[in-house]
Amino acid sequence: MQIIIYLLIIWILLGLLGFTIRRLHDTDHTGWWYWISVIPFGYLFLLYFMVLPTVEKPVRWGSYLFKEKK
User: Fold this and answer.
1) What would the mean pLDDT of 37-53 be, rounded to a whole number?
2) 21, 31 in Cβ contact below 8 A?
3) How far apart are CA 5 and CA 45, in angstroms?
4) N or C: where does the chain have the smaller number of CB atoms within 10 Å of the terminal CB?
5) Is 65 exposed, middle or buried, given 0-12, 13-18 or 19+ CB atoms closer than 10 A?
């Protein structure tokens, strides 16, 4: 039973990691900023980046956020 719980926790944590990196890309920051959360109070900077509004221009990773208006 414990192995199922551990697998679920890993699955959830990997999903949250993907969400965080995708959100950082939406705010035009690289996913490497995630590592700032390992230093003391670094999670506050990460939280700040997460609440920034989405950049409404093509970001470094392509224009997947918004379609070009014709």
Assistant:
1) 89
2) yes
3) 30
4) C
5) middle
Mean pLDDT of 21-30: 87
Give, as one character, the DSSP assignment of residue 10. H
Phi–psi pair at 31, nearest 5 degrees? -65, -15
Cα separation, 70 vs 55, whole angstroms: 19
What's the predicted TM-score (pTM) here? Answer: 0.70
Long-range contacts of 54-62 (CB under 8 A, 24+ apart): 54/26, 54/27, 55/26, 55/27, 55/28, 59/25, 59/26, 59/28, 60/28, 60/30, 61/25
Chain center to CA of 61: 13
